[in-house]
Amino acid sequence: MKxxxxxxxxxxxxxxxxxxxxxxxNDAAETTTETTDTAETDAAETDTADADAAETDASAGxxxxxxxxxxDLQRWNQDGSNMKAxxxxxxxxxxxxxxxxxxxxxxxxxxxxxxxxxxxxxIASIDGDSLGTVLAQAKEQGIPxxxxxxxxxxxDAVSYYATFDNYLVGQTQGQYIVDALDLDxxxxxxxxxxxxxDPGDNNVNYFYGGAMDVLQPYIDAGKLVVPSGQIAKEEVAxxxxxxxxxxxxxxxxxxxxxADGTQLDVVLASNDSTALGVANALASNYTGEYPILTGQDCxxxxxxxxxxxxxxxxxxxxxxTLASQVVKMVEAVMQGGEAEVNDTETYDNGTGVIPSYxxxxxIVDSSNYQELLIDSGYYTEADLQ
Length: 385
Ligand code: BGC
Known about the structure:
Blueprint: H1 2-22, H2 25-37, H3 39-57, E1 63-68, H4 74-89, E2 93-98, H5 103-115, E3 120-123, H6 132-140, E4 145-148, E5 158-164, H7 166-180, E6 190-195, H8 203-220, E7 224-225, H9 233-236, H10 243-258, E8 266-269, H11 272-285, E9 292-293, H12 300-307, E10 313-316, H13 319-334, E11 356-359, E12 362-365, H14 369-375
Parallel strand pairs: 1-2, 1-3, 3-4, 4-5, 5-11, 6-7, 6-8, 8-9
Antiparallel strand pairs: 10-12
Helix pairs in contact: 2-4, 4-13, 5-6, 7-8, 10-11
Bound molecules: beta-D-glucopyranose.
């Protein structure tokens, strides 16, 4: 486990040097800033841009449908705009849609993409189990589907899956807690609470599962205790990964189990939107020493919290890396070839294992955010003010 953890850190250093070396950071950083600030305008503009592009460009590379779950979370805006920019640079026309975290909206947007003549679909699903019927239509019409970041379950229409190594994300968070509390040597017990994401998102099984595989032995040994008793995945889930939902659940936990001055030592939060809810709840409902708090995505609000000492770490999944990998997949499939994968064992969607490309996540904390997030061009200093 330790060795794997070290390799994550080393991979991070390598990723930084590669990013610095390829010199592509600045463009992507501009896209990031623009998208974050003007997400809605961008989406509205997208339609017009697509229509123009469709007239001039459709014959060049073909029309690709990109379906993203929501604009509520920073990362999906970046994923969407990175994908669009990279696909267009490669000569494709892009129909990009965000589905407001509403399953019916996503289904109907995908139906429209099929009707509009999209030749390939890239989909980050809201609920991995809800796209079977519409994707059966895609399959019937010979339209290949790439699952983006989240695996689409129980559909044999999915050709490939590209994501960050989700199990490793969970393990990394768990191992961070083990190291930060020195659980192998310290006696404890330490008080821990757990917050994970939407039960319809297949990634939750890996984030939660990876972290708990690392932490469960310490719970069993009594070194970690969970005063709320809420440990099972269903008990610690957060619908739609919503910050407000995580915050109100956490306010209840704080008032029910910590109001008497009980020290909260650590919170395992699966991502940044839920970690933000925890940090907000702590700010107004907790006076003890700040707990260790994990996250994922390096959202701007959370990086600011890391700098301010209100969140300990976040797992960085560079959306530029994932978009580039998916664009490579699109190109291979559109040219009638096979896409590069590096995992053919892990991600069974219920119809068989989906060939996958797993990118490697990296830990960000107050010691390396400058190097990984700013020097790499992912954010500017001004983004974090
Ligand atoms: C993604 C995370 C994200 C979460 C909420 C997950 O499927 O992998 O990066 O934080 O969804 O949007």
